[in-house]
Amino acid sequence: MTDESLSQYFQTYVPLVEREMRRMIERLRPTAGPQPNTLAIMLNYHLGFASVDGSPANANTGKRIRPMLTLLCCEAGGGAAADALPAAGAIELLHNFSLIHDDIEDRDELRRGRPTLWKIWGQAKAINAGDALFALAHIALEDALEHGAPAERVLHALRVFDMTCLALTSGQHMDIEFEQRTDVSAADYLAMIEGKTAALTRAACEIGAIMAGASAETISHLAEFGRWLGIAFQLEDDVLGIWGDPALTGKQDSDLAHGKKTLPVLHAADQDRQVRERYLRRRPTDPVELIEIRGLIESRGGRAYAEQAARDAHDKALAALAAAQVNHQAGRLLRALAESLLGRQM
Fold this sequence. Notes:
This protein is mainly α. The protein is 71% helix and 1% strand. It has a single domain (3-341), classed as Orthogonal Bundle (Farnesyl Diphosphate Synthase). A hairpin with a 2-residue loop joins strand 1 and strand 2.
């Protein structure tokens, strides 16, 4: 399966998922009155569909990997992509709800190269917008009933969806807590990304298989595929966040400049007290010192450890996909997608 086939799949189905997302936001349209619906504008702005004034925009919308996983896992489980479109839209709306709240909690002023919601409209309105997206994500999944999905599948998917919401908030809680701790270990970090990152990619795959009516065994294997793929994706991000090219990653500063405690840093700190003392305990801001610390992290094995951990997670994802025994086109596209995420530059 070529990258061209995967690209074609994205070109075909991303617009259909985005149509589902836009349809959900249309539910916020006021039934009467001359005032513009600022809440809908905020959501469309965050999703890359609109400018600040509500006019159409062609902004960076993100990779849309998670909803594509949902559609592909539905096909891999014996269903049709159309069966999972409401679920795929729900997954992407939930992802973006988490981003809105993360931006507020982390005080991030930019998201995909544009000012974040809270930076433009204030914290209170941004929280409210995130809450609206959370509710719309649930309604989107429930809309699968109107597309003819059996009620028991939708109920099963909603259970997974809500458990994922709980995992996301738990992971974010740990991440925030880590900011005030100087004793965070590599093992602590891996536990955190199980919730903050891997839970949603797992749910994207699991819910896709559920909507297909796949067997319990197939659902379990595809869920594990999503889990390990999410971990591999995050660990790749950890490496790119320190050693990636800003022109490709789109980041203004490295993760070190923001004081982030990612796996390369934490492994190096576990190996060398100097890293812990100079970075975790003091959080330096001087660019020259940060360059020195980056070199120290690499020399103490932080980069190599994270890269190997990403490869190991990637291998486990592929093993779970193989165990699912989905050998038709959707299975090959899932493998191609997994391969495209390893060794990426952005």
